[in-house]
Amino acid sequence: MIFLKNDYGRGAHENVFRALEKVNYEYHDSYGDDDICMEAREFIRGIVGPGVAGVHFIHGGTATNKTCLAAFMRPYEAAVAADSGHISVHETGAVEATGHKIIEVPSDDGKITPDQIEEVIEVHNMSQMVLPRVVYISDTTEPGTVYTKAELTALRECCDRHDLYLYLDGARLAYALTAPKNDMTYKDLGELCDAFYFGGTKCGALFGEAVVIMNEKLNENFAFVMRQNGSLFAKGVLLSSQFRALLEDDLYLRLGKKANDMAFRLADGITARGYDFAYTPESNQIFPIFSDKKVGELDRDVMYTLWEKRHDGTQVIRLVTSWATEEKDVDDFLELI
Amino acid sequence: MIFLKNDYGRGAHENVFRALEKVNYEYHDSYGDDDICMEAREFIRGIVGPGVAGVHFIHGGTATNKTCLAAFMRPYEAAVAADSGHISVHETGAVEATGHKIIEVPSDDGKITPDQIEEVIEVHNMSQMVLPRVVYISDTTEPGTVYTKAELTALRECCDRHDLYLYLDGARLAYALTAPKNDMTYKDLGELCDAFYFGGTKCGALFGEAVVIMNEKLNENFAFVMRQNGSLFAKGVLLSSQFRALLEDDLYLRLGKKANDMAFRLADGITARGYDFAYTPESNQIFPIFSDKKVGELDRDVMYTLWEKRHDGTQVIRLVTSWATEEKDVDDFLELI
Amino acid sequence: MIFLKNDYGRGAHENVFRALEKVNYEYHDSYGDDDICMEAREFIRGIVGPGVAGVHFIHGGTATNKTCLAAFMRPYEAAVAADSGHISVHETGAVEATGHKIIEVPSDDGKITPDQIEEVIEVHNMSQMVLPRVVYISDTTEPGTVYTKAELTALRECCDRHDLYLYLDGARLAYALTAPKNDMTYKDLGELCDAFYFGGTKCGALFGEAVVIMNEKLNENFAFVMRQNGSLFAKGVLLSSQFRALLEDDLYLRLGKKANDMAFRLADGITARGYDFAYTPESNQIFPIFSDKKVGELDRDVMYTLWEKRHDGTQVIRLVTSWATEEKDVDDFLELI
Amino acid sequence: MIFLKNDYGRGAHENVFRALEKVNYEYHDSYGDDDICMEAREFIRGIVGPGVAGVHFIHGGTATNKTCLAAFMRPYEAAVAADSGHISVHETGAVEATGHKIIEVPSDDGKITPDQIEEVIEVHNMSQMVLPRVVYISDTTEPGTVYTKAELTALRECCDRHDLYLYLDGARLAYALTAPKNDMTYKDLGELCDAFYFGGTKCGALFGEAVVIMNEKLNENFAFVMRQNGSLFAKGVLLSSQFRALLEDDLYLRLGKKANDMAFRLADGITARGYDFAYTPESNQIFPIFSDKKVGELDRDVMYTLWEKRHDGTQVIRLVTSWATEEKDVDDFLELI
Question: The whole model's pTM is what?
Fold first, then answer.
């Protein structure tokens, strides 16, 4: 089977796994207080900038989003997100379970714009309505698109105008920062966001995400919120050692780049064979449109995700490459269509 | 000033106030266990039908919606509502504060259709997503439209197909059941809904709503959920005595009818003067469109609600009649335009 | 029947009911924005002191406690309360339903001491534990005892040492401030508490409580939390008009004094007949100990509350007087024992 | 340094780590749907019994308790737990954050008895109070004591009498089931509990817990609650592969036994040197009492946990052995005292 179903079908990159193996046979302090956590935090401060207020390691993405949004808002405050946002649709109401509404704005490409936020702010003007406080974006977005620095800067300025926090879900950050369209660095993210996270689970780690909080106020007592949400990992060293290995020598970006290369090789081949896409390919997730018949034929040999069954005899499927995808996987797929 | 701002600007109809005065000087048992509560429940069973599982009195609409939805769902379950629904926009996230997502579907007229629910059901097909469980509708809706029996029956059938509960917010039920377009009785509501409420606050009571639960399962331990949500009124007799007076001799419907008559007199006059409406008038809330200048002139003499400031020099305003509106109020308004 | 079951068996004092009747037949603005709300707030500022940050009217006690504690704390923060506290045992977990733990400390008389709070603070010293933030007390307490100014001052100082908020549940404040042991005024409460409320439901109003917030920070966006918790009453004038009437000319204190006088008349008579009490009578709730047989005899003529069935053939019952209790009620009861 | 601070200072036992390494380099399905999850579930059904309704893998203990209790209760229901219970004191209000009260009962040894539950049931007899629904116990308990089969059977019978669920927190189950006092098997747990979990994090796994639900009703839609609580691990194979390795050939019990042997060797040595214990040693956590001076001397060479600073010049410290503790660690410690 050719695995193009998602980017979390494999474990960790070898470097990361070896780092984990090393700490496995040592005693370490727990709950984020071990030496390697300290080192990993300093390393991240080094690549993101001296303004980092706190770095926290959490085992997975939904838990990270839930914990951050619970920590950043008062009860009547709400997050603004694209209607395709991960928190909007694919976390079983995890944010609402902490008591907060998500204000969903329509998005064709997974991104949201300052104009949309302005409109939300204009409408939410009385105590009968929730108070918008956090702007949630993901980069790459759920349909694989990527923010530019100009776009993120415009969102930042909008947030500044309205006293909003900008939070970036980086579950696929390695793929975003190495996408052709990207023009941002780690430091840019630090300067533009109140908080963001380095996704590990989907980007070369065995599991885990590293939250970087830039806004001192949002970092206050964050560990309490982590623990209350089941997000304070007992053996923190398992997370910090992975992130240390992942970020060192730009392994993170090299893995992201490789996945994007494979995705574009795949997209080019699909285009060359005359197929179209539901969204223009920008990163490691691509969404070709095939006939029902063609998709049926793929079932035997390919693991993919059905994205949308249209009523015109076609289907959109999602194909995802990862740091582990090989050229052979791509070429084998292209031979099938 | 001509008061057309809302239907809760006045206290109770005289009959209701007198009923309250009577019990004010007596000792009564508390928390819904008084004799008058028992009688009022029996009375409501009489007009709605023998299938009533429980009747509960709550002090206001938001508390009623919050309490019902908290009681009817498990944590991961969600309510489906129009994007104009009261729970969607005007309760400061009260439902989300109990941990539940509201799935909002677009609506031009405040109503939702079985097709929209079918689509929600089709999409929500895995544990990454919340599980739709309650269909929330309001009658009259927020923009004043009214459900027909055929529409409600179709919703009921859709709910039956997908194991959903149908909950009807009756904050303005008196106005709905006496609207020209209405063809439903109390008994129809009982047969078609899992739960609904008789709105009192906006329909002639001093305050309070009477929840009628038809589905035995939803009634189980409802008093616990009421109390946990601050909705179990200590002096229940204050609520039950009002509802007894309000429902007796069809006072409720007579008050609703009067408000609708006033609204149509108003709407006809506005139409006769050449103005248009944002929504076709169907009940006691109407939404005429005036020029900015005209609205400016009204400010001195009329209390109304600004609904939407358009960018073409016009505004939609909301004018609301109630059981307390007099012909003179209407005619005075019409002279102004 | 002689009604000594509780202090919410009756409606409003006549003055209060007349004030309500007056506003019933007028149009008023809603959600706390009416003129009478403004006046009542100013009146309360006059009697409590210029430091009042906000006054908010809520329909009942559980809703008030739930709303205040939800507003005052971040998610991982907790309230400290006596294990007999109303929020601890008699609100069906309303505070926990907003996500907060209540740290219960043992209390024989319903009061808590600075030493107990110090111990809680000492133990709660890491992010594995909730962070104590609010000290909840009630005056009178659930078993009818009363705080002195020295006791409240000591609690205030303890709160200042540990950055805690002091919140006083005044459901029975009229009875507390007129108890023989009391040496506090409205102004003292304002100076010592971060927030407290004037109980109306149990002290002469038809229903309702008036929250007084002294700490500016706690007042911020309070209306949003009220609405989210179903506590923002649509017809605010119904609450403000009652409180205006209740507080004017010290009616509140006169009603409290009368109830206490009746309670002591009752207690003295019971003592004279050779019975003992579970708690020393201090206010309008008294807890005599009778034999099972004696209690059985009372059942026919008296409405009271069973407090504790002991295993030695005796029972503690709760007898409660109110502003509405008459000498005849007391004397009739005494004849029965 | 001699590490006796806790039983989560080390990673995984070698067998477990090797199993993880194997799956690291393969593609697997996600969210608990992989083949190895299926196998591990079958394996667990084999050792616990055919009555297993569901097996779910979660990354850590707090998340497991939070998820289970959120899944098992309706909003107004409560868990009964010892006041030393992990959910009561050391999870930063994680259970309350899902809206549920924990009713704490006093316990000297970390265990609770049917009599205590009966008393809770007797008191909680009205809708003003939460409704007890889950009995939470831990085995071993927080102070290291162990339940016998007779004790657990008595709790089960009490639960049956009152329609309560019995939930056993098995964070240290390996140590419980191999304690000298234990007389229970996996099958006994399955027959007596509604749900329990095999603790992995503290018992030889790298991380993770395996929840076993026996009661079909409690298993319904459990995955939704997992995801909503951030507890549905993306790469489920990382958890299932570990548990398969851990439970195979009774490795789990062998690791537990070794830790207990080391703990008793340590306890015997401490006793022989004339020291006493705060709790009688029963498993891998022991609580000797040393003078302040002696504890001060240990600081240089030993990692331990301060449990209680007494006011008589002594301290209780907690010493914890694990599957990784060696005889040399024990003997080195004994030489120091």
Answer: 0.97
